[in-house]
């Protein structure tokens, strides 16, 4: 039986922290944090929530990973407008307040969008969905969830390149890329954002597009927490009445593995495909393995399964994007868990996928008796047509270096016992690093590391961006945040390294700069 967590792995793309940072060691001066919350409360009395209040607790419980729920800000602030966000940033700058920002809360690693002490900017009230059928556009607030977006668009028979999981938030998903059912022709979801409304470090509110602040527009395609807080995303839409979606799980046999991986490879190299989506994943839970697929067709036409082996689990539906995601993949993120992720990018190679699973079986077999252990590895295509859509973004030159169809490899491990944190992280990272090393030996590795699937120790900007493009991103950052305020005060997300390239830069410089704002001590719990 395939678990909901497995379906999540196969179908989702989630926003994911400071490079190499160990967030769990960061305890904020509680006196400073309290003073910051007092200043916020004086300016925005109805929007600031202390520990123990219903709004605070609700925000805290939305975090997907249990590691995230182990951190407790002194307060949360829930802005209703870009003007509110502007005031919050001005207060943070004046009082040197450290903060985190959370939209959907589905980043998995500890401290990625939460903070111990300090305060969290809860973006959920910035949830506008303004649809223009005539202009074929939609304006989205970062606090919207994709299930709500799709439901609002369905009566107009339009859709956009959003997440494949209903409860994922708009904000982080789009700042990290975003894989959608239509990505084979549309590229990453971020490639379909044509305008950003953003609050800069000094509190000013502006927009970024190809014609205004074009350098900032370019950088925001891999912006994370470096340039400002985006308060609106303007995206293109496409006509869409119904789609077809299916999720299937199969026993692992020579036949199922051979046929499904062969079918996936054919899909990954299909230059004529404009309507179909397919991903494949191996999984183990309790030492029992399965091989699963997620498929979609944008015209609502059911597709062949890719194998003659009968599935042990199967669900499919022809309906609106909202219905397919809510009914076929419903509840995929319903249960929280302890989780650790690792991702890397390769060319398509069936034997490599088989070998990666065999190595995973070897690494995790001694841990099969650990409470709640499930581990997965999924493969999601980046066809050349997909990569072409990233032209004019920071990641294009790295993706294009292989001059081939590529695959994002994701390893995701979940468990329940906090005592197993170290061993699970070590096992996950061992498998991921083995995969990268082996792929490089075989001439398969591309340096791109997909931000939305990465863990906090993976180097995003020195891997996914060429040296020239990284220098350009740093220049843009200095232009729009010359004092480095966001780097100093905004915790979580991935920070641009100050110097260095090709992975030699560590987070030491960033950490040293932030240490001046960190003192010993633990914040109180709820």
Automatic annotation (TrEMBL):
Pfam families: FAD_binding_4. GO terms for molecular function: FAD binding; oxidoreductase activity. Residues 1-20 form the signal peptide. The keyword Flavoprotein applies. It comes from the Eukaryota. InterPro entries: FAD-bd_PCMH, FAD-bd_PCMH-like_sf, FAD-bd_PCMH_sub2, FAD-linked_Oxidoreductase, Oxid_FAD_bind_N. Residues 69-240 form the FAD-binding PCMH-type domain. The keyword Calcium does not apply. Keywords: FAD, Flavoprotein, Oxidoreductase, Signal. Belongs to the oxygen-dependent FAD-linked oxidoreductase family. PANTHER family: BINDING OXIDOREDUCTASE, PUTATIVE (AFU_ORTHOLOGUE AFUA_1G17690)-RELATED, FAD-BINDING PCMH-TYPE DOMAIN-CONTAINING PROTEIN-RELATED. This is FAD-binding PCMH-type domain-containing protein. It comes from Marasmius oreades (fairy-ring Marasmius). The lineage of its organism: Eukaryota, Fungi, Dikarya, Basidiomycota, Agaricomycotina.
């Amino acid at each position: 039986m395939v678990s909901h967590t497995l379906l999540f792995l196969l179908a989702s793309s989630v926003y994911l922290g400071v490079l190499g940072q160990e967030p769990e060691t960061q305890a904020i001066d509680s006196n400073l944090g309290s003073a910051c919350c007092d200043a916020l409360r004086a300016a925005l009395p109805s929007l600031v929530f202390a520990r123990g209040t219903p709004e605070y607790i609700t925000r805290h419980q939305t975090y997907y990973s249990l590691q995230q729920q182990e951190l407790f800000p002194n307060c949360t602030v829930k802005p209703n407008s870009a003007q509110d966000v502007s005031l919050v940033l001005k207060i943070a700058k004046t009082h040197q307040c450290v903060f985190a920002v959370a939209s959907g809360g589905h980043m998995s690693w500890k401290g990625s969008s939460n903070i111990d002490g300090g305060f969290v900017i809860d973006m959920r009230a910035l949830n506008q969905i303004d649809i223009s059928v005539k202009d074929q556009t939609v304006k989205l607030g970062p606090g919207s969830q994709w299930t709500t977006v799709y439901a609002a668009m369905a009566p107009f028979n339009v859709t956009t390149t959003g997440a494949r999981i209903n409860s994922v938030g708009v904000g982080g998903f789009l700042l990290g890329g975003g894989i959608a059912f239509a990505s084979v022709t549309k590229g990453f979801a971020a490639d379909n954002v044509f305008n950003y409304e953003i609050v800069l470090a000094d509190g000013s509110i502006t927009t970024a597009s190809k014609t205004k602040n074009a350098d900032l527009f370019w950088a925001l395609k891999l912006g994370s927490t470096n340039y400002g807080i985006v308060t609106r995303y303007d995206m293109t839409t496409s006509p869409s009445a119904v789609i077809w979606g299916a999720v299937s799980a199969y026993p692992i046999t020579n036949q199922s593995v051979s046929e499904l991986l062969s079918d996936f490879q054919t899909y990954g190299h299909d230059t004529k495909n404009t309507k179909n989506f397919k991903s494949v994943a191996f999984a183990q839970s309790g030492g029992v393995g399965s091989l699963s697929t997620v498929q979609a067709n944008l015209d609502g036409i059911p597709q062949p399964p890719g194998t003659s082996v009968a599935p042990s689990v199967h669900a499919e539906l022809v309906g609106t994007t909202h219905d397919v995601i809510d009914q076929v993949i419903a509840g995929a993120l319903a249960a929280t868990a302890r989780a650790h992720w690792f991702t890397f990018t390769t060319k398509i190679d069936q034997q490599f996928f088989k070998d990666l699973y065999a190595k995973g079986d070897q690494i995790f077999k001694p841990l099969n008796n650990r409470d709640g252990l499930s581990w997965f590895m999924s493969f999601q295509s980046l066809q050349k047509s997909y990569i072409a859509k990233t032209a004019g973004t920071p990641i294009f030159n790295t993706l294009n270096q292989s001059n081939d169809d590529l695959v994002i490899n994701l390893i995701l491990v979940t468990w329940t016992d906090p005592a197993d944190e170290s061993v699970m992280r070590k096992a996950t990272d061992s498998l991921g690093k083995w995969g990268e090393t082996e792929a490089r030996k075989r001439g398969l590795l591309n340096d791109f590391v997909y931000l939305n699937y990465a863990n906090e120790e993976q180097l995003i900007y020195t891997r996914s961006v060429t040296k020239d493009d990284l220098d350009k991103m740093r220049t843009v950052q200095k232009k729009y945040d010359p004092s480095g305020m966001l780097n100093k005060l905004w915790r979580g997300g991935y920070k641009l390294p100050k110097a260095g390239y090709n992975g030699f830069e560590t987070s030491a410089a960033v950490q040293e700069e932030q240490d001046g704002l960190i003192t010993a001590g633990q914040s109180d719990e709820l």
